[in-house]
Amino acid sequence: MPPPPGVEPNFIDPYDHMSENIALHSTLLTITTLAVGMRLYTRAIITKAKLGVDDYFCVISYCLVVGFSVFMFLCYNKGIGRHLWNVPVQYVVDMLKFFTIGSYIYLLASGCVKLTFLFFYYRIFAGSTRMRYLIIAGIVLTFGFTTSLFFGTVFSCIPVERAWNPTVPGHCLNPIYLPYVSGISSSALDLYTLVLPVPVVVGLNMDLKRKLKVVAVFGIGLFACAASLVRLGMTPILRSNPDASWNLSWMAVWATVEINVGLTCACLMLLPAFLNHVLEGPIMDSMSRLFSGAFGRISGRRTQESKSPIGGHDTWVPYVQQRDSDSQFKGLNSHQMTVRAK
């Protein structure tokens, strides 16, 4: 791609987004790693509970998120984040190859993060028949769309190598439609996954302040959903602007935010039990109560339900169990601790 009039190509030290992108990936990966570590530590050490399906999907999601960042780092070294006229010709094929493989990983990571949420919901809310059907529907849709989009994207070019090297003999499907289908379906499933537990939370027998605390944790996931919508909104720009290496960098930024924030949010549900176990002292104790107090009423509902068939162990109760000294829960009877199910 030739540079604009009056601009000379710069292959030595061109302006790029590498430093900003590395900082973004490093920061988000650090936060995500801490969140996943906290979740697994809480499950295995604090609650001593058997890992459930949601935990396995959490680990798979984390591995995919790390893999996505690795391929994005490779992309940055080959020209993503530079203007296309500043990318040496010999870098272009490798740049597109790494980005294409990274996009495959992103599709799987995005789907696995959603499944982490949905299987967690199943563990907690399966006692409600309506919720159980809605959660199963979400699992089926997420698995179906993720699988279809993954294989549809991978085999959109025959042979696959032609996706990043147009000199290879073969053919590709029209590239216009898949990004839109992927973006729209991902955004819709993000919204579905995030709003699914809200009616149950609204039905809890707790005051408005505590309900808002619970909803706030789910609300953090709105950042991931917003990132997905921004990525979708950038698709027309990517299709119309030939400066691909520059525009793909912005697409990668929002994809990174989406999957990292989503996975972090999926781990925050275990934060109350972690705080109760780790933090000490009056100030830290108050912080722990701030989180655990919001979730404590949910545990009452699960104590009256049978074990979930998924995950093998009812682990929500120890996640959010209150300290004995938390007087706001003393004297509550079983009726007060139940949820208006269905």
Mean pLDDT: 76
Strand order of the largest sheet: 1-2
* Residue share in helix: 55-70%
Cα end-to-end separation: 59 Å
Protein name: PTH11-like G-protein-coupled receptor
Main location: membrane
Keywords: Membrane, Transmembrane, Transmembrane helix
Subcellular location: Membrane
What does this 3D model show about the protein?
With 342 residues, the chain is mainly alpha-helical. Helix content is 68%, strand content 1%. It is built from eleven helices and two strands. A two-stranded antiparallel ribbon has the order 1-2. 42% of the residues are buried. The C terminus is likely disordered.
What is the topology?
Elements: H1 18-46, H2 53-77, H3 89-125, H4 129-154, E1 157-158, E2 171-172, H5 177-195, H6 198-202, H7 208-240, H8 244-267, H9 271-278, H10 282-303, H11 316-320
Antiparallel strand pairs: 1-2
Helix pairs in contact: 1-2, 1-8, 1-9, 2-3, 2-8, 3-4, 3-5, 3-8, 4-5, 5-7, 7-8, 7-10, 9-10
Protein name: PTH11-like G-protein-coupled receptor
Organism: Trichoderma parareesei
Membrane topology: Multi-pass membrane protein
Give a short summary of the structure.
The chain is mostly helical and 342 residues long. It is built from 11 helices and 2 strands; from the N terminus they run H-H-H-H-E-E-H-H-H-H-H-H-H. It folds into 2 domains: 18-269, Rhopdopsin 7-helix transmembrane proteins (Up-down Bundle), CATH 1.20.1070; 274-329, no CATH class.
